[in-house]
Write a structure and sequence with these properties.
The structure is a single chain. The protein has 367 residues and is mostly helical. 80% of the residues lie in helices and 0% in strands. The protein starts with a helix and ends with a helix.
């Protein structure tokens, strides 16, 4: 009960801040919840073990993430009530795919609630049921948007955000297999197949965008492209969780995810160098964008997949051991950097909003 009170307190504080400052969060902001959630339940749990969550730190981190999740959901409702929802979250066809973070963020929140606060397990069941409905609505919107993109040829501007269709689908697999026991194999297999089919479609569109058009790596390579390996990692975790996929196929998925990880992150390093040369350190890398959370999410997801792959199949190697021993500290550093950039962005945005409100009040007083 103590942690529930803390969660409600943080939730109220965040919502009050959003409302008072008139902040409407972007569609993909739930990626923050996704990233922190898999960091807690995937990275920290597999590195430190279950004992980490028997102490207050583990539960406190979970409470903070759940508070963000509640607050972000209410922020979406506020945008709807203010008539801003469609303009912010639906008008841009590509941006619609960001709704997938709502599904994945809710999935990890439901899992956290179920794992960390077992006495309130019935809440996880309700969350899972609602999230399944949200996922079906999201997939329907995504399929409709795919058709619109082909009609308007806007598929030429696609990027990794499309892969949230796969991420959201496989997150549903993880959620329902955590909350509901004895799920039929046919249900799991159907969801896995849907996720993999969506992955192939999205990857084809992304490859087509970069192969058949001229582009600049500094400008046109999106942060969300790292979901190319992140979506494969969560698919592998979903396969392991269901227990219905052959070991050889899971081994193939891990190897594919590892190769894609090396390929995509090599491009990211080259992009980093080019951006520094073009924009300098401050404007080249030390800027905040919500899409950067996809990097934290995908790194944490690959680490989690590797840990589960190692534990379930008893497969070890120098590469896997290095990832498990050293990868956690890199992910922690990456998370700290992202949190720092995010806090600086919030402070600067708050100052700008306050100045704008002050100017509007001055104009009103003059009139």
């Amino acid at each position: 009960m103590f942690y529930i009170v803390i969660m409600l307190f943080l939730f109220v504080c965040i919502i009050f801040f959003f409302t008072f400052k008139k902040i409407y969060i972007r569609t993909s902001t739930m990626a923050v919840v996704m990233s922190i959630g898999i960091f807690i339940q995937g990275v920290l749990l597999n590195y430190f073990g279950i004992s980490f969550f028997q102490h207050s730190l583990g539960k406190t981190l979970s409470i903070i993430n759940l508070s963000l999740w509640f607050a972000f959901i209410l922020s979406f409702f506020i945008a709807y009530l203010d008539g801003r929802f469609k303009n912010i979250h639906y008008s841009n066809p590509i941006n619609r795919f960001g709704i997938g973070t709502w599904v994945a963020g809710t999935s990890i929140s439901g899992i956290l609630f179920f794992k960390q606060f077992s006495k309130w397990g019935f809440i996880s069941e309700i969350v899972a049921f609602i999230n399944i409905i949200l996922w079906m609505i999201y997939i329907a919107i995504s399929l409709k948007t795919f058709v619109e993109m082909f009609q308007t040829k806007s598929y030429r501007n696609v990027h990794g955000i499309l892969l949230l269709t796969t991420v959201s689908t496989q997150s549903i697999v993880l959620l329902v297999n955590t909350v509901y026991k004895g799920l039929p194999s046919s249900v799991n297999l159907s969801l896995l197949i849907i996720g993999f089919c969506l992955y192939l479609v999205c990857v084809s569109l992304i490859i087509n965008r970069y192969v058949n058009r001229s582009w600049s790596i500094e400008v046109d390579w999106n942060n969300t492209n790292c979901i190319l390996h992140g979506a494969l990692s969560i698919s592998g975790i979903a396969c392991l969780t269901t227990g219905i996929i052959h070991t050889d196929l899971i081994r193939f998925i891990w190897r594919a995810a590892f190769i894609l990880f090396l390929l995509v992150e090599s491009i990211e390093v080259y992009r980093l160098i080019r951006r520094i040369n073009r924009y300098g350190f401050k404007n080249g890398i030390f800027i905040y964008d919500v899409t950067q959370w996809s990097r934290v999410f995908t790194f944490a997801m690959f680490y989690t997949f590797t840990a589960l792959f190692h534990n379930h199949l008893f497969i070890g190697s120098f590469v896997i051991d290095t990832i498990l021993k050293e990868g956690v500290w890199f992910i922690i550093l990456l998370l700290i950097i992202e949190l720092t950039l995010g806090l600086r962005f919030i402070i600067e945005s708050t100052k700008n909003t306050s100045k704008q409100i002050a100017r509007e009040n001055d104009v009103t007083s003059t009139l």
